[in-house]
C-alpha cells in the first residue's frame, strides 16, 4: 500500500474562499470517480489560523507504486495539476 501526501500553499492573493481554490477543490473531489486506481482519497482546506500551516491537503492511497504512476499519468490528474500549478506552491511525498 502506498500513501501519497500533497501539501499546498496558496500563492499570494489566493484564499480558500477564492473562486480558483474552490474550483480546484471541486476538481480534486471528482478524481476518485475518474481514476479507478485510487483506493482512498481525502482532501480539504486547512481551518487553523496559523500562517506557517499548509493551506490545503491531499492524502490518497494506492495498492502499488504502479497504480500510483498510472494515477500520475492519467489525463484527469494532469488537468488538476495544471489548475493547482496556477494557484499553489506544493510539497509532497509518498509513504510505503
Outline the structure in words.
- Residues 2-96 form the Stress-response A/B barrel domain.
- This is Dabb family protein.
- With 96 residues, the chain is α+β, with helices and mostly antiparallel strands.
- It has a single domain (2-95), classed as Alpha-Beta Plaits.
- 40% of the residues lie in helices and 33% in strands.
- It is built from three helices and four strands; from the N terminus they run βαββααβ.
- The protein has helices at 19-34, 65-73, 75-87, and strands spanning 2-10, 38-45, 56-62, 88-95.
- It has a four-stranded antiparallel sheet with strand order 2-3-1-4.
- The longest helix has 16 residues, at 19-34.
- The N and C termini lie close together (6 Å).
Number of helices: 3
Q: How can the largest sheet be summarized?
A: 4 strands, antiparallel
CATH class: Alpha Beta
- CATH structural architecture: 2-Layer Sandwich
What is the chain-wise order of helices and strands? EHEEHHE
Report the count of strand segments. 4
| Structural domain tally | 1
The strands making up the biggest β-sheet line up spatially as 2-3-1-4
> Distance between the terminal alpha carbons, to the nearest Å?
6 Å
Low-confidence stretches: none
The whole-number mean of residue pLDDT values reads 92
Q: Could you say which overall geometry the principal axes of the C-alpha atoms support?
A: globular
Which topology does CATH recognise? Alpha-Beta Plaits
Strand-pairing-aware structural class: alpha+beta
What percent of residues adopt helix (DSSP H or I)?
A: 25-40%
* Rg from alpha-carbon coordinates: 13 Å
Strand-residue fraction?
A: 25-35%
Domain Stress-response A/B barrel: 2-96
Protein name: Dabb family protein
Organism: Uliginosibacterium silvisoli
Pfam family, one: Dabb
